[in-house]
Amino acid sequence: MAQRLDILNIWVDAITRSEARDRVVEILDQGRRPHLVLASNPEKNYTVPADPVLYDIYRKADLLLPDGIGMVMAARLLYGMKLERVPGSEFIFDICDIARAKSKGIFVYGAREDVNQTACEKLLWRYPGLNIVGRANGYIPQDDMPQLIDAINESRADVLFVALGSPRQEKWLATHANQLTSVKICQGIGGTLDTIAENVKRAPQIWCQYHLEWLYRLLKEPKRIKRQKVLPLFAFGIMQKRMSQRFPLMG
């Protein structure tokens, strides 16, 4: 198991992408329950502790991916550990690749009907032989949720991707994960289906290479400033904690 690091008010697993893949293989081979794969980033440091349900599900998650460069830099400053960024929006492809190789079934839940359908078609094109055993859009009424759970269980899916956006997808998993009978991997993937369906354009590689994907998305979607305004606060908190480590009397 990867070491879990405390980063201010949340956690992240000290894990590389290759090690995360190995963990998924292990879970698919030996798992006997749903294992939750969630993204850990600076924004979550402020939203998760404020909600007891979110806090509990993040604390119990089986994999907390170092999704944001902020978590990578924080781990280096606070623990001297060189983490590798593992974006949840990319790790879905690792899971699909593993599932195809191991002939495991996938269920895709979330997003609009057209987005869900197109994303599934593109995943099948990208991974010939991928076994998508079921899908459902993210606009199912709460009263119909028992039927959705039945559909997932009847599909015998091994992997469930939940694309409801955060924190809705995490709260859905907190409520329903224990009702899933065959699923071994549950990943919250946010708006990734929109990216796969090409409704939303990902940052060009050069932006990703220099860890500026967050800036690209902000320029494309200025309304994200409300979410990203916590980044300076996060950076200040990390520096403050680092100083207290070096000079304990200041803590």
Q: Helix-strand pattern, N to C?
A: EEHEHHEHHEHEHEHEHHHHH
Q: Summarize the amount of helix as a percent range.
A: 40-55%
> Regarding quaternary structure, how should these chains be classified?
single chain
- Please work out how many helical segments DSSP would assign: 13
Outline, from the CA principal axes? globular
Major sheet strand order: 4-3-8-7-5-6
Instruction: Catalogue the unreliable spans.
Output: none
Q: Could you tell me the radius of gyration in angstroms?
A: 18 Å
Strand content: 15-25%
Structural class: alpha/beta
Mean pLDDT across the residues is: 90
Tally of DSSP β-strands: 8
Reported for the largest beta sheet, the result is: 6 strands, parallel
- How many distinct folded domains? 1
The separation of the N and C termini measures 31 Å
